[in-house]
Amino acid sequence: MSPTHVLIMAAGKGTRLESSLPKVLHPLAGRPLIEHVLQTVETLNPARTLVVVGHQAELVKSRLRRRAIEFAEQVPQLGTGHAVQVARDWWSGKSGNLLILSGDVPLISAGTLRKMIEAHNRTSASLTLLSTRLADPTGYGRVIRAEDGRVRSIVEQKEAGPGELQVKEVNTGLYCFRIIDLLEVIERLTPDNRQNEYYLTDCVGLLNRRGKPVEAVVCEDWLEVMGVNSRIDLARMERLLRERRSTNQLNPGPAAIDP
Fold first, then answer.
1. Is 239 a catalytic residue?
2. Out of 16, 209, 239, 242, which one is annotated catalytic?
3. DSSP assignment, residue 83?
4. Can you tell me the distance from the alpha carbon of 184 to that of 211, in angstroms, rounded to the nearest whole number?
5. Chain segment 136-167, per-residue pLDDT in tens
6. Cβ count within 10 A of residue 241
7. Is the pTM of this model over 0.85?
C-alpha cells in the first residue's frame, strides 16, 4: 500500500465570519474546526501531516502545538494551488500519495476518506477527487466528466458556461494526488482567471493533457463535505453535529459518521 501524506489547508481569514479569529479556529462543539479534521486524519495513520497556515499563522500554530504535525506558511494567500506550491519542499521528495483536505470541513469522515484513497490506489489514478451532488450547485465548481466517466475538468462557477452550470455534481475541494504526477503539473498552474489565483483544480486539465487518469469518488451525503463560510453555516453545523452524535449513540454502527 502506498504511503499517504496529508496536507490540510488552513490559511484563510474567513472574512464572512466577521471575526478576527482565523477561520479554522472558530469553535464547533467546543473544539476548533480544524481539530475535528485532525482527529479524523489521525485515524488514517498517515505517514506525515502538514498544515498550511497564513492568516494569524502563529496563533494557529500555538493552538495546535501539542499535535504531531508540521507547518508551512502561505503569505500572501493566492489560492489553493498556491498553497500546495508553497508546501512543495515538504511533499515533493516523498513517495506515495498526497491527500489534500480543508481545515474548515469538520464533518468529513474517516470512512469516506478511506473509500477515496482505496479507489485512488485501485484505479492507479494520478488524481482522485471527492465530489458530491447538490440540488442547487450554485457557487460550486462543476465536475465535468468524459464519456468514460473519468473527470475531464472542473469548472468554477464564474468560469462556467450555460451547459456546465446545469451540472449537479460539484467539487468538494478534497483531493488525493499521486505525488510523482503532481510534480509534473503543480508549477504549471497560472493565475489566468477572474480571481487572479492559482486554482488547484487546473491540475485536472493539465493531467488530462498528459494522458494521466483523473477519477472522482462521489460522497452521497453532501452534508459531510459542507464547509464553514459564515456564522449561519457554523450554527447549522453545530445543530447537525449534535443531531448526528445523538443518532450515533442510539444507533451505533458502520454507517455512522465520525464526529
1. no
2. 16
3. H
4. 12
5. 999 999 999 999 999 999 998 888 999 999 99
6. 17
7. yes
